[in-house]
């Protein structure tokens, strides 16, 4: 795994919405409003259209399902020190348009497991 986008792709494959649709490189997910992650758009790449049009399409998609439009924008905590990524551009664009934000970040922590630990995690037969 190289980037936060790679991690989000892996997580999205395992924490899915009951309904999903791709808008270019953005994954739109809906699950009846149960969790924020399963009921938010995940911008993983280029939406295939200008940003304002993509945001309008996301808004329509969620409103058609009776859900508030939400976006889970994957950025790093130290993102200010890095060059502006496409995700940061989306985040900035949403902020300029006064989209509501979560009260705090959603922390994602990862760590390498020592070689051989996976054998300890499997119940004996």
Describe what this molecule looks like in 3D.
It is a single chain. By secondary structure, this protein is α+β, with helices and mostly antiparallel strands. 31% of the residues lie in helices and 10% in strands. The chain is built from 4 helices and 3 strands. The chain has helices at 4-14, 51-63, 86-96, 117-120; strands spanning 19-23, 26-30, 42-43. Strands 1-2-3 form a 3-stranded antiparallel sheet, covered by helices on one side. β1 and β2 form a beta hairpin. The longest helix is centred in the middle third of the chain and has 13 residues, at 51-63. It starts with a helix and ends in a 5-residue tail after the last helix. The mean pLDDT is 81.
